[in-house]
């Protein structure tokens, strides 16, 4: 669970560095904000699943889907907060950071331990 979050952090870091080359520090910050808006809810969801596994030995299906819905709502909420508070937002960099963070979790499934 946490390996996917680790890959997301690495991919967003690389994306932020590349965005700084094209759009300056504003682009790097925007890519980081976009990635963080996906990483933070994913990390909290992984923590919740980890605690559920320790308590019950397996999380319930309903609990999983409720957690996933909360994760999606939190991501949308963080994006809305970023759009409202950060005046120098570079939208293409933010969206690229978000997409990279969402797709980087698939690296955890492709890479064997």
TrEMBL record:
One of its GO terms (cellular component) is plasma membrane. The chain crosses the membrane at residues 5-25, 31-49, 61-83, 89-110. It comes from Azospira inquinata. It is a multi-pass membrane protein. It is found in: Cell membrane. The lineage of its organism: Bacteria, Pseudomonadati, Pseudomonadota, Betaproteobacteria, Rhodocyclales. It comes from the Bacteria. Keywords: Cell membrane, Membrane, Transmembrane, Transmembrane helix. InterPro entries: ATP_synth_I. This is ATP synthase subunit I.
């Amino acid at each position: 669970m946490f390996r996917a979050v680790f890959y997301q952090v690495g991919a967003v870091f690389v994306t932020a560095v590349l965005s700084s080359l094209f759009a300056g520090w504003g682009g790097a910050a925007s890519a980081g904000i976009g990635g963080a808006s996906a990483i933070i809810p994913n990390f909290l969801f992984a923590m919740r699943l980890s605690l559920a596994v320790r308590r019950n030995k397996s999380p319930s299906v309903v609990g999983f889907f409720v957690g996933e819905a909360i994760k999606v709502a939190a991501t949308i909420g963080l994006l809305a907060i970023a759009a409202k508070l950060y005046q120098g937002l570079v939208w293409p960099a933010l969206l690229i950071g978000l997409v990279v963070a969402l797709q980087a979790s698939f690296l955890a499934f492709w890479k064997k331990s």
